[in-house]
Amino acid sequence: MANSLGAYTPVIIAKTIKIMRKRLALMRFVTTDYDVEMVNVGASLQIPVTATLSAATITPANTPPALTSIAPTSKTLTLDNFKAAPFSLTASDLNTMMNNTDFVPAQLEEGASAVANAINASVFGQYVNIPYYVGTAATNPFATSLATLADAGLSMNNTYANPVNRRMVLSNAAVNAAQKLGNLIQAFQRGDAGTLNDGELGN
Fold first, then answer.
1. Bridge partners of 3?
2. What's the CA gap between 189 and 25, in Å, rounded?
3. Measuring CA to CA, which residue among 88, 100, 3, 83 is closest to residue 41?
4. From the CB of residue 138, how many other CB atoms can be counted at a distance below 10 Å?
5. Using CA atoms, how far apart are residues 29 and 157, in angstroms rounded to an integer?
6. What is the maximal distance between C-alpha atoms in the chain?
7. DSSP state string for 100-152
8. Residues 6+ apart with CB under 8 A from 197
9. Cβ contacts of residue 145 below 8 Å, gap of 6+?
10. What share of the chain is helix, strand, coil (3-state, %, to 5)?
11. Does this model's pTM top 0.70?
12. What are the pLDDT digits (tens) for 6-63?
């Protein structure tokens, strides 16, 4: 008879979600509120795309203005990307996990990390046509200076991007290059010694 994991399932899910939240870099910045329904593999979602509008001059008159026709469109998103990382847990790991809220089996963390890495790679792979970009593709933006960062800010300002909660996702190589720049490691330029002492880039 197969083992029943019903009592362990809620704990496993809770610990897995905690791991995934730490590992998923881009999912915090991806819109996920198009549909709240649970759907099967291969199902499609229709994502509305608003029509472009232009401002017009208002002419006072005693007749109502004519209605303006707009043609909103939509994009189809097919849910065909489902990932898993099967593994086994020992009875000892399960019992320890149930009795110790801080304990996470190494195999569980490895499995969740594998799925998170696959999700990150999938999301990164969708960014193949990016408008208003700055810098050069496949080139470290901080190889010599922070100029690309300033250029990115200018591009966002020119396109009226919301100035609140702007975020940047960096590769390990980009972080390493930025940590070597004098603008960040020299306290008199940065304003504190955070990069030099702790490797933190700051805001």
1. none
2. 29
3. 83
4. 5
5. 18
6. 82
7. -TT---HHHHHHHHHHHHHHHHHHHHH-SS-TT--S-TTS-TTSS-SHHHHHH
8. none
9. 181, 183
10. 40, 5, 55
11. no
12. 788 888 888 888 888 888 877 878 877 766 666 788 888 888 888 888 888 888 888 8
